[in-house]
Amino acid sequence: MTNQIPPKPKKQSTFVKRMLIAIVLIAIYTWTIASAQARIDWGKIFSIRTVENFDRIIPKFFDPAFAETGTIMEKMIETIFIAYTGSLAAAVIAVPIAFLCASNIVRNKFLNNVGLWILGAVRAFPEIILAIIFVAAVGPNPFAGVLAIAIGSTGMLGKLYSEVIEGIDMHVVEALEASGANKTQIFFYGIMPQVLPEFLSYAIYRFEIDVRASSVLGIVGAGGIGTLITFAYLNRNWEEVGMILLAIIVVVTIIDQISGYIRRRLV
Amino acid sequence: MTNNSRKFIPTSLYPAKTKRIITVSLIFVIGFYLVSSITTESFIINFILKASNITDLIARFFPPDWGYVSNVWGKLFETIHMAIIATTIATLVSIPFTLLTAQNITTNKVLYNFMRFLLNIIRTIPDIILAVVFVGLFGIGMFSGIIALIIFSIGILVKLMSEIIEAIDMNPSEAIKASGGNTIQTIWYAVVPQVLPQFISFSLYVFEINIRASVVLGLVGAGGIGQLINKEINFLNYPAVSTIVLIIFAVVVVIDYISGKLREGIL
Amino acid sequence: MIEFKNLSLTYPNGTKGLKNINIKINEGEFVVIVGLSGAGKSTFIRSINRLVTPTEGDLLVDGENILKHNGKSLRELRKKVGMIFQNYNLVKRSTVLKNVISGRLGYTGTLKSILNMYSKEDMNMAYENLKRVNIEEKLYSRADELSGGQQQRVSIARVLTQKPNVILADEPVASLDPPTSHQVMTYLRQINKEDKITTIVNLHFIDMAMEYADRIIGMRAGEVVYDGPVSEVTEKTFEEIYGRSIREEDMRGGAADDE
């Protein structure tokens, strides 16, 4: 009996906690399944038509429209250009914001939080929603895609950069201060050499993500290969969808390999 | 002293080779930027030229149409439900795949490499293209969106988890094997306890990603709030769009916050 | 000349870093400050280049009260007072040469320093100083490729490139092994004698203090409890400074009787 007294109160609270979690989970799942049941027409999904679709569509994926290679590659290159222009812009814009957020550089909690809040707000929007907004603003062209990529990437890069900055060795800064360097010199001699390789590595990593992202922006009219997806899909031209998919897989894989190689050599 | 004219004085802070590499890389980065920004018509000048469009647009989006809020709830819940269902199923399905793509569990090289290859391909396909394909197969609606999200999430989860499993301490599993445990017992007693917290944490992380992803799937008819955005954009009903976007923003922030807190509690 | 006049330092949380210090350090002296960790040695040294700011009293460097300095005048002070740190504080990813030339930052315009535009004299000086500490062949190595002793020698070269009148060294050998410690101290001593640079070193090790110092200042709990030429110092003096008997860990050992 005496041995059991200490763990007992803790056990009780864990039990209550677990029951609460279980109840919340059951409630969420009941609600979810009920709503899904109401919305999904199972009869339609498991129908002859679906089987026919499979028969019709799947074989076409494995018979991609190689004749379209020229057009598709042209749009694929545009996709890469959009991703590159957007990533590079973000890689630069994110730097000042990241320094604003880094608590070891800007010793003002309020400014740090404002910066983090802006970056968090930007990250909450999927790129494609940003693209919809920019298409409305500047028209259906690659520029809208570049804007969407640039802003979306700034949200992530700013956050990652600021974490890098907060991890630097501040003793170096002290040493430069002790030798009479001014603030700008400390920035270029003490801080930039410590953070630059990671900054570059993250920017390249973000470029990988941006190539994926910009390949779908065309669906809302923001340029790149996504434009072709919409047409092919509306025309039920599945051979072309298959070819586009193949192009995306190949190009994304190649870019991932190259960027992985560069990033391994950087740090 | 004797040979003053040949006395070595360094002329640069970097060795010549480093300097060359940096120069060449810089020329490449800037050159590629010029090419890509000019072809996509998004050179720095374009930002300035189009600045007025963007400010005009912001004016058109404001004020948000608060009366529209009541139209949003149905599709918003559909979006959340899609993410819940897809994350749950993807989590369960990814377990066997995770084990098959962890080098220290799957010792068969051929099987391991094949699984790696397959998953790498899956991860290159953007979520929205998966949705296009499944809408083609199963027809318009939430079901197609869920299947697309499941496949998309498996790609991410398996990658993250197999890395964690590859990094675990293999000594306990050796001990269990030595005491006569079979493969399943070894996994259950030696592997699962080491990775369970990360596994749950990653599932929540994928849930966050799925919320964002399911927002956009509606653009191609795969259910969720994206359908509403698409509709209102086509009607040029910008105040309604900004209402939707603000609601999405709020939901994403709240869900990220809750999920972040849960993940902190787990790890 | 450096003069502490009734100098005290109270931290915002109320703890006293320095208590009523009155010390005069003459040009060209090699002073070693000894004391247990937390005795205020580091605060003492960092007051001289104002990495910490004393709260009461006066601190005169070459006749100027440096406690009033700020902005430009503070940078001027720091140009003539060089500092060496326990952990070398080099930019690990930069080359040795870039670390050394950063000693010239106080003398170089901001724009020039950003564009790495240094005069031939500056580059030559940096290279000559690397030669002085026998590490010139590493000029293009990254700092993190070097051993601890080599990094500390680079940081000495950096300080020399600054052309200081005073060198402060805060536990310069605490992270090094005994032979390397002696090597670094020998360089500091040599520079002090050849260039007549006033040198103030924080040390924990009694044997090293005895071997290299002209004068020893003992600190305990923020106060100066001993000040005198090394010739008058005995083991008993250290026991008084440390407030306890001398232990094995207070000795560095090693190459002390090489010469």
Please provide a written account of the structure.
Chain C: It holds the Pfam family ABC_tran. Chain C: This is Phosphonate transport system ATP-binding protein. Chain C: GO terms for molecular function: ATP binding. The complex is a heterotrimer of chains A (267), B (267) and C (259). With 267 residues, chain A is mostly helical. Chain A has a single domain (69-266), classed as Orthogonal Bundle (MetI-like fold). In chain A, 82% of the residues lie in helices and 0% in strands. Chain A has helices spanning 7-39, 42-45, 48-61, 69-101, 109-123, 127-138, 142-166, 170-178, 183-217, 226-234, 238-266. The model of chain A has no long low-confidence stretch (mean pLDDT 86). Chain B folds into two domains: 16-61, no CATH class; 68-266, MetI-like fold (Orthogonal Bundle). Chain B has helices at 16-39, 44-49, 51-61, 69-100, 109-124, 127-138, 142-166, 171-178, 183-217, 226-234, 238-266. In chain B, α4 runs antiparallel to α9 (183-217), α7 (142-166) packs across α9 and α10 packs antiparallel against α11. In chain B, 38% of the residues are buried. Residues 1-5 of chain B have low confidence and may be disordered. With 259 residues, chain C is of the alpha/beta class. Chain C contains nine helices and ten strands. Chain C has helices at residues 41-48, 71-80, 96-101, 110-114, 120-132, 148-161, 178-195, 206-212, 235-242; strands spanning 2-10, 16-25, 30-34, 56-61, 64-65, 81-84, 166-170, 198-203, 215-220, 223-229. In chain C, β7 (166-170), α7 and β8 (198-203) form a beta-alpha-beta unit. In chain C, α5 crosses α6 (148-161) and α6 runs parallel beside α7. At the A-B interface, α1, α3, α4, α6 and α7 of A face α1, α3, α4, α5 and α6 of B.
